[in-house]
Amino acid sequence: MASGRFVSITHLHLYAIINTIIKYKYRQQAIKVIRILDVGCGTGVLLSTLIKELPLKNPGISFEFYGLDVNDSHIQESGYFEKMILLLQSVDAKVEWQNNLKLISSHDHWPFEDDFFDIIFSNQVLEHVFDQELFLKEIHRTIKNHGYSFHLYPLKHYIYEGHLLIPFVHKFKSWTTTYYWIKWGIYLGFGTYRRHKKAGLTSSVREFAKRHADYMAFEVNYQTARQIAATAKKCRLKNSFDFTYLYYKQKLRSLFGLSPLEIYRPTDMCSSKNSFYFFFLKYVTGITLVLRKNNSF
């Protein structure tokens, strides 16, 4: 995959979207400095890749990279933020990363100025955000009027839940139903329990199911397409699902050993086929949500 420069198809897809926006939108607007925010930057692996790759693909453009994550999530390992700072310092020691990387509570407003960013993106983050209205309001506040915000993540529609690898487990409202569904799923051969067991897990099926029912209750917040569209409208953001099918196109190209797409076509940014493919692909796994705040009316 891209000569090993990208650790996953998701990273490649987000990189290709940024290149597409720069070539067909920002170069036409003669923008010379582009500020990019990675929301939920985690360990900084994707951000470090973009720091290395984007200037090579876009000569004549200067980039400023920023990262934001939360300190009240149970998903990340202890000390992950300090490790991210060290990683990014090893990639670009000229930047004062302590100033460009922010760690906040999930209830806080973002510590950035209004109309500050040209691009805001996230990778597999929005399904973990419980106050999605605050999240989108902060995008509207901090992104420039010509800016793009895009987010790769799964909606509630999808069938095979990607964290536990058990079908439909994210659709139940009752904790008890979720708990028993996980147990039955394990007995039927679904999920990650057997893989963890081979790696030395000592928990019983009952303990594993209880812990992961808690995970589904407190660590994920799946929304439908209608719900996220309503939230976007409330926050004065235009929403679409452009680029969604291209993620799967990248997957197929990788499967067949074809070279990856590092930039998409201009017609991919706004095409009727995006809506057609989205209708089916939202049931498979991740979609690409695109948000913009410019209003021409």
TrEMBL record:
SUPFAM superfamilies for the chain: S-adenosyl-L-methionine-dependent methyltransferases
KW Phosphoprotein (keyword) present: no
GO biological process: methylation
Keywords on record: Methyltransferase, Transferase
GO molecular function, one term: methyltransferase activity
Signal peptide range in chain numbering: none
Domain of life: Bacteria
InterPro entries hit by this protein: SAM-dependent_MTases_sf (IPR029063)
Protein name: Class I SAM-dependent methyltransferase
Organism for this UniProt entry: Hanamia caeni
